[in-house]
Amino acid sequence: MMAILKVAQLGHPILRTVSRQLTGDEIASPGFQQFCDDLLDTMLEYDGVGLAAPQVHVPLRVVVLSLTDERGPEFFINPEITVLSETTRRTWEGCLSVEGLRGLVERPDHVRVSAHDRDGARKALEIRGFGAVVLQHERDHLDGVIYVDRILPRSLVFTPEFRRWGPPEEYDDEAYEAEAEAEAEAEAEDASFLREIPS
User: Fold this and answer.
1) Residue 183 annotated in active site
2) CB-based contacts of 143: which residues, under 8 Å, 6+ apart?
3) Could you tell me if residue 30 is inside a domain?
4) How many domains does the chain fold into?
5) Cα separation of the two ends of the chain
6) CA-CA distance, 75 to 83, in Å (whole number)?
7) Does a structural domain hold residue 78?
8) Which of 20, 26, 88, 130 sits 20 to 30 Å CA-CA off 189?
9) Mean pLDDT by 10 residues, the chain (199 residues)
C-alpha cells in the first residue's frame, strides 16, 4: 500500500542528525522493506531524483536515487563514497527539504560508491557527472549536511527568481538550470557515465 511520507524542512533537527548504519537482519526485515517502498513512493510523488531517509524523519543510512531511466530507482544502504578524480563540476542544486531555493555547489565529478542494495546484496558503481552530484547530495544528508552548507558565496536564490532572471551576476557564466536538466536527460539516455564494478 502506497504511503507518502512527510518531508522534513530546513530547521528540523532530524536534518542535522548523523544517521546510523543498518545490519543485514534489519535490511531483510519486512518493516524496513515497507519503508523502502514508502521512501520510493515519496520521492516519485514529489518528482525528486533522490531522497534520503533523514528527509522523511528516519535517521538511517539509506538513500534512493534515479540515476538512469534504464536502471530505474535504486537503493544505496550504508553507502561509502570514494572520490576518483580531482575534476569538479558546479551544479545549481535544490532539495525537497529546502523548498523554493537553489544554490551553486561544486563537487567531485567522478566517484565510486559501495553500498548494499535493498535485498542486502553488496554493489559498487563508478559514476560521473550529474549522477555523481545527486549521489553526493543525498549521501550528505546521512551526515546531517545540507547543500546550503556547501554553496558558493552569494549564490543562494529563490527558484522562481532564478528561472526568471538567471544566476546572480557573478555566476552568470555558469550553466542555467535548463541546460543542466538537458544534460541530465542526455546522460540518462546514455548510461556510459555509470559503470557497475563486479563484486
Assistant:
1) no
2) 18, 19
3) yes
4) 1
5) 34
6) 20
7) yes
8) 88
9) 91 98 98 98 95 99 91 95 95 96 96 97 95 97 98 94 86 56 50 61
Rounded distance between C-alpha atoms, residue 109 and residue 107, angstroms: 6
The backbone region for 174, taken as left when phi is positive above 0, alpha when psi lies in -120 to 50, beta otherwise, is beta
CA distances, 125 to each of 5, 58, 107, 121, 145 (Å): 28, 25, 17, 13, 23
Please, are residues 76 and 135 in contact by the beta-carbon 8 Å criterion? yes
Task: Give the CA angle between residues 173, 82, 92 to the nearest 5°.
Answer: 25
| Single-letter amino acid code for the residue at 34 | Q
pLDDT at position 191? 43
pLDDT attached to residue 124? 97
Query: Count of residues for the chain?
Result: 199
Whether the Cβ atoms of residue 88 and residue 108 lie closer than 8 Å to each other: yes
Q: Give the CATH number for residue 41.
A: 3.90.45.10
Catalytic residue among 93, 99, 126, 138: 138
CA angle 84, 44, 196 (to 5 degrees): 30
